[in-house]
Amino acid sequence: MQGTRVLEVDPADPEPEVVAQAAAILRAGDVVAFPTETVYGLGANALSSEAVARIFAAKGRPSDNPLIVHIADTAQLEGLVESVPPTAERLMERCWPGPLTLVMRKGPAVPPEVTAGLDTVGIRMPDHPVALALIRAAGVPIAAPSANASGRPSPTTAEHVLEDLAGSIPAVLDGGETGVGVESTVLDMTTDPPMILRPGGLPREELEAAIGPVVLAPGVEGGTVERPRSPGMKYRHYAPQAPLILVEGPVLEMQEKIRDLAMEYAEEGKRVGILCSAESRGVYVAPVILEYGARGDLAGIASDLFGTLRAFDRHQVDVILAEGVPEEGLGLAIMNRLRRAAGGRVIRL
């Protein structure tokens, strides 16, 4: 494959001629990276087994990790799902387009490669003009995980996509930086009550305000599952190159533990990076200290999280010590991503 083409596009008012170039690649059975409101996705025709296989090849993604199907209109649900439960209809009316994926019984049009052989499929309608324009121009639903090498932090800019996939994919639609910064919330509508398989850009509290109680799947708050029903459930994800150690607990205790660990690693000759809140920055001494934002601004932390994790790679640190955040609202998704990035290296105080 030749180099990856960068197709710059207006994120608010995408130029049809630019989107048409990317749509032609999809219709030809290949893959394209594109922006959504959450992160950049790596898309292929969701109705083609051969096209979907190119996603797994480009990312180095395990074949038992299902994909999410993106649509631009609820009419596209025909053939993708057996039926739409009434509760799912209420959520579609209230939350679509937006960062919510609904898992339902799959229909006959969905190839097994999309669902990793499961009898369910995750569907969402992204809230981004470029993504919606691309789906419409391609004329097919688009299967898309995040547009990064498997296991790496998800991309929130086209530059992040190119860091991982340049030369491995034909093109990326560059619509600038994404907004939400963490992937969609994945809600299983085949259980009663509905179950959050992956926390994301739509907080649990907003879901419960719309439909009543929802529960968390095993593994959401740590650990793993043998057969994932959603992306983000089984594997180490979102990880920078250096090992990340997550410290959770009361603020003062987190700070004390991270200071102690930083001293220990420094004495071993390691280059230490610290990921912390703006309020904690002055507490630490280390070669690299990066803020994820103010502790009370969870939306801001989510938006910058993956970009900040990638920044540690450029600083070439040997180990990263990260502060946890409160788990209300978007904090549940942020902590899920940090725990996955830590790969089990979590200290709870």
UniProtKB/TrEMBL annotation:
Example GO molecular function: L-threonylcarbamoyladenylate synthase
Residues recorded as binding ATP, renumbered to this chain, are: 61, 65, 120, 144, 146, 154, 198, 238
- Keyword Ribonucleoprotein listed? The answer is no
Major enzyme class: transferase
The record lists L-threonine as bound by 38, 70, 124, 184
* E.C. number: 2.7.7.87
Q: Which residues form the YrdC-like domain?
A: 16-202
Q: What does this protein do?
A: Required for the formation of a threonylcarbamoyl group on adenosine at position 37 (t(6)A37) in tRNAs that read codons beginning with adenine.
NCBIfam families xrefs: L-threonylcarbamoyladenylate synthase
> Family per UniProt?
Belongs to the SUA5 family.
What protein does this entry describe?
Threonylcarbamoyl-AMP synthase
What organism does this protein naturally occur in? Symbiobacterium thermophilum
